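Take a careful look at the sequence and tokenised backbone pasted below. I need to know what the token row says about the fold.
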Amino acid sequence: MKEESSIQKIRNSPLFRSFLFYSAFRAVYGFGILLFAYFFATSTEAPWWVTILIFIASMIFSRILFKFIKSKTGSSETPSE
């Protein structure tokens, strides 16, 4: 029976997998929000602070969305908790 290497143990860890999933989620979601905010800021006559409100609302919404996704996948560990 072959022993698992340290790297394999880390890669198979639920916390590590959760961290990877969270990182991928934030990268994709963050890129989408940046594109949306850019086009909103350059295409409308809204004041600059409205873009800041979009980012604040995005932070709140992303946490709610991520918790919803985590509950559907059945994972209980998150890197930030």
About this structure: The chain has three helices and no strands. Residues 14-43 form the longest helix (30 residues). Helices lie at 6-11, 14-43, 48-73. Residues 21-73 form one domain.
